[in-house]
Predict the 3D structure of the following.
Amino acid sequence: MALPIHPLVDHTIRKGAEDFTGGTLRCQCTRDPVEVRVDSQVLFNHACGCTKCWKPAGALFSVVGVVPRDRLTVTARAEKLEVVDDKAVIQRHACTACGAHLYGRIENQDHAFYGLDFIHTELSDDAGWDLPGFAAFVSSIIEAGTPPSALTEVRQTLRDKGLEPHDCLNPELMDLLAAHTAKAKGTFREA
Ligand SMILES: [Zn+2]
Ligand SMILES: [Zn+2]
């Protein structure tokens, strides 16, 4: 098995710890790294194949999870952070020196995921973060240069790693998004 999905998926076996309450993220600068304190376990952690999420060198996927935004604080070198694309739904705050994305934030209060920040737990040395539970936007890795002919093997590798591959988000999150839209349109029915 040679496909480099992501270091956390390729090499890590340990599961998240039950009593884990968060940790510190650091960018990849060897001197004066940006530091972000997260006082929460990560929710909905998943592998993502989209071209916007930050990936470590050589990985086909990013691993991205969410935490409540009021549990995330930039604790050092905030001046090194800049938003990658201020037109994007998720404002990804990246280190201007090393390029690592420290957190992504949704500023649109009408968005279904407003209140959640997106983080990459591999930037933390703390053990106990939950590992990714599924893979999203798998077909999008073609946009980043993976040949379409490789996708069968990529999807099989993901399944072998216990990450069900989806070409959008997983059904649970897609249902959340659709329910949010239905509520906004007045068509939502509870049962
Ligand atoms: Zn993504
Ligand atoms: Zn940096």
User: Anything to note?
Assistant: The chain has a mean pLDDT of 95. The longest strand covers residues 62-68.
